[in-house]
Amino acid sequence: EADIYQTPRYLVIGTGKKITLECSQTMGHDKMYWYQQDPGMELHLIHYSYGVNSTEKGDLSSESTVSRIRTEHFPLTLESARPSHTSQYLCASSVGSGNTIYFGEGSWLTVV
Amino acid sequence: KQEVTQIPAALSVPEGENLVLNCSFTDSAIYNLQWFRQDPGKGLTSLLLIQSSQREQTSGRLNASLDKSSGRSTLYIAASQPGDSATYLCAVSEKSSGDKLTFGTGTRLAVRP
Prior knowledge:
The complex is a heterodimer of chains A (112) and B (113). Chain A is mostly beta strands and 112 residues long. Helices cover 0% and strands 48% of the residues of chain A.
């Protein structure tokens, strides 16, 4: 079983608020990812990191930002939330190349 | 740009039936292909990983095959159970993009008792 944790699991916030979604893994994986998934739709990569102090934007443009100061921690921040940010955000991690990618349980964000 | 398609979008079968889920991808230069399971409101659970050099992988009642040249993979579930009800996703990673995955939209499976 994967040891990757996301908090909060569910969050409802008002427009304009700043929010940070937390993601931690205890497996020592070097690679970490953030995917966004709208209900019934496919997952899209929004951010990834290949190690400490390494972050890149994914295929889907996102107004969120990420940081990777510690191997185990990969938080995602929205400086000013909007209703269009309402979605499920999934964090994942993997080690090396060509290996299984493990996902967290996801964070459901609703912006009202 | 890699595109991943899964057919059918939804499937309902009686308990005990064997079934096949299909996944196709447009660019055969893949690194590997993974099958995942997603329960409602939850994250993804990895089921099987097939490297580009492999033809199939098996885990319990699950068997995944890969035909890279034709851009196809199948997930075979034997003796289906109600607990198998979930959305099944396939995803490919390409050599040009390392471990970044491109996902299909999934097949929603319902196994009736």
